[in-house]
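Posting this for the archive.
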Amino acid sequence: MKNTVVGLITPHFLRLIDLANQAETGVNVDWHVRNQVASTVEDLGHQYNARELLSAFVDGLEAAARDAGPGRKLYAGVLQKAASMTSVEIKRFD
């Protein structure tokens, strides 16, 4: 079976969406977000196109944060934080 970009990224993306939703309910998700970003970088980092996969992941997180709307600041903040943490890790693949 052939893996696709969407198939590789979606599970990681949805875990962060879930954490962002939990943050809106008052749950402290900081450690969980850091752990999920590290897990995502580890899992996708073994692919031959790791840089592109992680870049697409960051783009998706940033788009979801932009689309969240003004009333969902915690949600958007969690996604932005995850995107910036992943962006730092992408530099390892240069």
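The CA atoms of residues 24 and 73 lie 8 Å apart. The longest helix spans residues 5-24.
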